[in-house]
């Protein structure tokens, strides 16, 4: 479904151009959940932004191709890209407060993609928005529909982002550190919610995280990035039981130890 081949990206705003992604290859099957892991600065967000067509203006694609169901995302027109964004590919971010409009009611924000991609009437959009909010396990969607982001907790704001991301039933959901700003209990709930959405709508999920514990719970396959290079790729079992690279071993070893649970047991849970 998603095929990234030989993707290299540079930033041109530095005195010497800096390459932030080197010949990346990544593929995803329909309905698959793939983890993208690596330290801060390894290129995870750049990969996500390239796939979603959201790279900053001074980022230059030096080589490669990105295809979604065969469609060439790097050479499609702006209109073609716009019709894919929110419709076929949707993205959720670490901090929903920066993506949500603080002065727009929740309901309108959840409906945004329907406004862009469909001719549905106001009442039809509202019905779909309430359903997406229920899918995102938001309590009392009728009330929330008329509230503003600042009236919600961080966990609920992330659920609002998820509701607006899934409202058009995208084939690919890119989740860039979606739980990092949340406390541990809410993190687990969001991971379960992503699992539920994946099963219900067969949405493929590219899950970006530095938390290998969460990646292990959610994903079936992992791609490991280091300084813009893909250093390892494999199933969850392969990566966690017999990582080939020292870098991967170090990443696994840096999984935070939960109180009272030895690291080795955590990894085999
Ligand atoms: N807007 C930008 N302009 C210039 N360089 C950037 C920009 N955004 C990111 N970079 C550089 O690109 C490289 C990859 O960054 P990226 O954000 O993809 O890393 P990451 O793995 O997502 O890190 P994190 O886990 O901290 O989000 C880094 O060296 C970073 O400094």
UniProtKB/TrEMBL annotation:
Protein name: ABC transporter ATP-binding protein
Native organism taxonomy: Bacteria, Bacillati, Bacillota, Clostridia, Lachnospirales
Localization (cell): Cell membrane
Cited SUPFAM superfamilies: P-loop containing nucleoside triphosphate hydrolases
Zinc is among the record's keywords: no
InterPro entries: AAA+_ATPase, ABC_Ni/Peptide_Import, ABC_transporter-like_ATP-bd, ABC_transporter-like_CS, P-loop_NTPase
Source species, domain of life: Bacteria
Main location: membrane
Pfam family, one: ABC_tran
Mode of membrane association: Peripheral membrane protein
Entry GO terms, CC: plasma membrane
UniProt KW keywords: ATP-binding, Cell inner membrane, Cell membrane, Membrane, Nucleotide-binding, Translocase, Transport
Domain ABC transporter intervals: 2-252
The organism of origin for this protein: Diplocloster agilis
Family membership noted in the UniProt record: Belongs to the ABC transporter superfamily.
Molecular function per GO: ATP binding; ATP hydrolysis activity
